[in-house]
Amino acid sequence: MRFMHARVASAAASLGAGPLLGLLGPVAGKWDTPVGVAVGVVFSSGWPWACYAFLVGYFRRSKIEAALLASLGLAIGVVTYYLFKEANPTIPAGMESAASVPAGMESGTSGAGQILVWGIAAFVFGAPLGLMGNVARTPGIGGLLFRLLVPLIAFFEATQRLNVEADSQGPVFSATWNVTRVAACAVAVALVGQTVWSGRVRRRDGDRPTETAAPARRH
After folding, report:
1. Is the pLDDT of residue 210 over 60?
2. What pTM did the predictor assign?
């Protein structure tokens, strides 16, 4: 019974993080400070959403739960995002145009149709991300390829944003995505290093001879 309660609580926490993710970007974007602008830029982009679905799957033991909870949580987050944008139809502070917001997620476009389209997309793409997060639990090189997914997505998106939008946005925008690229590279290097170190430890433990039991003392 205690295990069941813990499992239900864990699932509820995973789903509860979805609305928080949906609110973080648009709420922070309204803070007229460099930190608020940076947080709004990051959490109105794609990679934190992919990271959320990935982590939901990573912390579930069941692949079915990983796929289902990632899809539901991501869809709930998208609905929350659009409902907040619908109630507060303004361009996030520090952004000179709606070009810095992902296509389809601009202020003023978050009607019922956008909620339906992007909610379905989140539900569909959440499942494979959750499954990949679950597979990433596999030790060694096999799991490493999946663990590198989120840093790769973050680096790619940051590079694209800098190439396409940096000239039309302020310095906070460029600094945010440059920091994101550096952080993505640092996380990737750390993951590779951790995998190599763990593999050496396992090989060392496997090569170590087992200790025989000490002979019983004679009385």
Report:
1. no
2. 0.80
